[in-house]
Amino acid sequence: MSELDVDVAIIGGGLAGSLLARHLRRALPDLSVAVFERSRETSFKVGESTVEIASHYLSRRLGLSTYLYEHHLPKNGLRFFFDTPERDAGLTAMSELGSYGFPPLPAFQVDRARLEADLWDMNKESGVDMRVGARVSEVELDESGRAQRVHRFKAVGEGGETDVRCRWVVDASGRASVLARQQRLRVDSDHPIAAVWGRFTGVADMDDIDDPAWNARVRYTHRVLSTNHFCYPGYWIWFIPISRGVTSVGVVCEHPYFTDAMRKPEGFLRFLNQHRAVRDLLRPSELMDVLAFKQLAYGTTRYFSPHGWYLTGEAAAFSDPFYSPGSDFIALENDYIVDMIGLEARGASASEREERCATYDEYMHYRLRSTMLIYRDLYPILGSFEILSLKWSFDIASYYNMWGHFYINDLHLDLKQIRSEVRRQAPTLEGQEQFAALFRKLGEELRAQGNYYRSNLGKFTYGIEHIDYLDEIFAPRSRRRIMEVNVGLFNLIRGRAHALLHGPDSRVPDLDLAAFSSQSLL
Amino acid sequence: MTRDEIYNHLVDILVNTFELERGDIRPEVNLFEDLDLDSIDAVDMFVEIHALTGRRIDAEVARKIRTVQDVVDLVEAELAKAKGEGAAS
Questions:
Q1: Which are the contacts of A36, defined by CB distance < 8 A and separation ≥ 6?
Q2: Chain A hits for B17, Cβ within 8 Å
Q3: pLDDT tens digits for range B42-84
Q4: Would you say the ipTM is above 0.85?
Q5: Residue A249 in contact with residue A239, Cβ under 8 Å?
Q6: Cα A289 versus chain centre, distance
Q7: Crossing angle, helix A350-375 and helix A415-423, to 10 degrees?
Q8: Do A513 and B38 touch (CB under 8 A)?
Q9: Best interface-test mutation with A: which of B22, B34, B39 has the largest number of A CBs within 10 A?
Q10: Is A293 in a helix, a strand, or coil?
Q11: How far B82 CA lies from chain A's nearest CA (Å)?
Q12: Residue B19 contacts A, CB cutoff 8 Å
């Protein structure tokens, strides 16, 4: 048996763990870092699409911007297509919600296997002790509170056993959740969705479609570089390009739409081919592999411990891939972990560290709760262009104004700012619930009237044309200004929802901010 | 409570509830424009004022509040009313 003493041990060398190792080497170069990865090589993984927070983390915090442009694909925002009840619309006939210009901050479509392999190399080069093919089981946590804390575990690999001692240990083992399971931190989710996905080669390029008006309406930007969603009541299908001629295609559905047959290539293809536009794109392609998860979403009772152990990425929690939030969570968690390790390494007092740990942990819980409310019980409305366009306006405003602004301006590392956000979580979540109820009601009513699909053909919207604050996004702004903008949008969205429910001439009086979280919006 | 006591108590509430800096709070500053409070914060503030005075603040009156001094005046008036009612009963 060999022995290893290291400052920070990271269990799992996937995206979360590899990014954390890089982050630690850059921010705290005096600390030694070891990564224990079960696999011997990186493999196809889902989660190719980054959004603004994650991109900001990758490019600015981790210095990967030129690397990303060189080896991965720039992302042309999100895009959503809508279909008939018979699912027989051709792609160019479908109503479309999507950009006609690149978003204000760049985002990327990453080839996960390649990114992780490259990160392994970069990390090794920067002095990270990278142990592949190493399986970690029981971690003996030191929660005694003594200054010279030592967590211990055994890593078993081909070369035998290593007895590892470390001051900090991070669970980045993904769904295996080594530490989270051992500490019984897992929380089941009340959001029952499954996912099946595969890699395809030779998928038809939608930018090759010869339809001048269709190409002109996105100002000739590249739809193929978007995260393309085909939306149906109860499920959606994604198309994401991941470089080198490969496309990731997957379906995320409420449990009633999921069958075990979909886990196999034939069943997966049979499901996809029921949709004409999807079938047309896949016709020339070949399926390389299929993976599936029956239960995608889950939570955790704790993200960070003041005793120097932490969870990051899917070891902690997962919500829903619809808006690609997975790597945003990694960005936040890794920022917090690096900050807490740095604080302790610099000799901060136990009370200061405990306070920071508790505040960060609370913010993560808030973030997950809020993210779940974007999706929970809302799958029935996904298939309607009119309703999803409204919901999108709400969701994009929340993302840019609240979460994006907070992260990109580094307010998420300022205790005072976090406390202020957390203090307001009850009204914020309540406001989200009220909007969710409004969107659900819209779905039920339009369905009952036979109008759910009425705008699903021939329409196009960017979904942000009524947003008059584009120039301000991510610039330093006061909360009052942000809330002013939000209230304007909330009233606009509520007004449009009422127009859909009660006719174009219906009017509702404007509400102030507090009213959005204290009364029904119906 | 004297006016000074009310003012100091209010400053404590603002500092503790809204993570404000004590030095930024002066009688003439505007709660919304200078201290960046919004209507959600206002709800929290009136909960605290209710705890202090034991009286529900009329929504019309609350809407007119702008400065720290406005709140001090309001609390003083409400405390006086509460005292008057206490004496009458």
A1: A9, A10, A11, A12, A13, A131, A134, A135, A136, A155, A164
A2: 423
A3: 888 888 888 888 888 888 888 889 999 999 999 999 999 888 8
A4: no
A5: yes
A6: 23
A7: 40
A8: yes
A9: B39
A10: strand
A11: 27
A12: yes
